[in-house]
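Recap from last week: sequence in, structure out.
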Amino acid sequence: MVLDSFCVAASLFILTIALGMLQQGRLARVTLILGVLAALIGSATSLPGGSATGVMWSLGDMAVTWQLQPSAAWLLFWGGLTALAAFLSPGRAKNPAIWMAGAAVALLGSLGVAGLQEGVSFLIAWEFLSFGGAIMLLADGLQEAQRGGQASLYMLALLEIGAVALLLCLVLLGAQDTDFTGWAASWATYGGAAFGVAVLFIIGFGAKLGILPFYEWYPGAYGSGSGASGALLSGVVLNVAYFALGRAMLDWLPVSATTGVGILLVSLGTLSAILAILYAFQQEDWRRLLAFSTAENAGLAVVALGAAALFRADGLSLLMTLAWTVGLIHLGGHSLAKGAMMLSADRVAAVRGNYQIAQSRVLALAPWTLGIGALFGAMSLAAMPPMAGFASEWYLFQTVFQDFHLTSSAARVTLALGGAGLALTAAIALATMVKVFGIGLLGREENPAEVTGRWPILGLGLLVLAYAVALPWTLAALVRDNWLAVPAAVAAMVRGPILVPLTLHFAFISPPLLLLTGLLLALIPLGLLGWSHRRHGRRRVPVWGHGLRRIPAENAITALAFSNALREFYSFVYRPGTNTRKQHTEREYFVHTLQFNYSQAPVFGPWLFRPVVRLVQKLSDRIGLTLQNGSLNAYLAYIGILLIVIFASVFYL
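Predicted structure tokens:
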């Protein structure tokens, strides 16, 4: 039944692509929703034992097989729920049919990355993720064609760097046999060079996960599309990329190289999370802020993966399983919370006409259902109890606090510094979510409009809460993960309704009890308010504004003012720039218009990406003068040489 469900899902996604190309938007949406439902059924029935192995097709003499492991099913399920909510929400794409086709391409690639067990087909599915995302962003058409196209090309360029790195891994590990079952043995033959192969895998999968420096494509790409596109990229696409990196680091990587790789992963994940959330706090666009937040949460999951590699190096299988499971828990809850916030961004844009974070009465105008969903999503991303983000980040802190079990002093110091970085990240993430919710959804709005599409947001918000509350029981779905095969570790993460990091004596929390206690404690202020209302009635008094009798509208807090203090404190990271333009009427002291722009410089772009772009442009200009000489004979010669190369490669293979 599991394989049948995924075959149905893949068939419906292919049908959606065809319908989208034929501009049949309504039918494409129906088939896409049905495909996601089929994938959800398959993912749910794959837990806790995983799916059987099915032969998809033959690649030469080799059979291409597909099998879903419990960890992949977990990530697909929660990411699929977010995708379903995005498809049920009112779309903002300029070309909905093509957007549906792009989403189907991305989801088809997600199924392949999660389940394919052969290198060549896996790389094809990996490319589906990239091009499906680009198609969605271009179909959104929310920016002028030039800026949107540049953002998509920049994203594809960086992702293709990762694809080339994965292609090199395929050549190194699968030259004789591209089936994944032999990659661990092939990797072990490289000895000291095994670390270099691991770096290639980190580059390849890290390009989509946003590990530095690749997170710099996030704001431009997300900022050129809709919140629905961001929900898919932050959900199912990010989840399967993390699963692929985990498979390489915990299943194929030789144990002898795991200490160095674990230190590298913890360092990269911590720095990525810190830099990403620092830049998220400065954004004035919903999508760009949430894009950086996605990179931050991916960095946190990579820290958990790095910790798992360090524990694996010392043979601490229980702690390794704990760390890997924590990464799965974190990204599952992140998918739901980020989906709620991304779809809330679309609702704000529908009311205000843009995605700028500015004071508005969206919550006052919208039904309470939107407010509850957005609030729960923001609370989870801010790691506030009892939401999913609080439970997963609590688990993550307890995992890095286990550094005293490691024998390597370098590994212990790395995990300790990683814990300090996580604390800084959590603090800034709280301020970031306060900013986007408090300024982006509360305040004044002169042009009210009807708010629609709140039910999917409410559904995701309630799922964020239910995810954390049900965690003591749903963790049983991961006890039979195929790689680690340590069911006792996952079972030891739960004691009845409470969560523990393997032992009750180390630490514990209980999201269900936190929720129940919070509801009971909420009765106290509600009772006091009711008593005060009956005794004194309702009184309306002006808001205190520093002694002013009348509060001017200019006193409202803006996104820029809210984040300026941190911008000044971390100016050595941001390197802020101020641009002011003045327009005069007759003389220069009669200012008619004043335009003010405050920006931050990217960290890696100026010294890493721009020099490469300039080099490629110079080489292309010089080569172009020779190749494009207007000679028909030269063009025919080029075609002939290309045909010879193609035929030679075919005969060689």
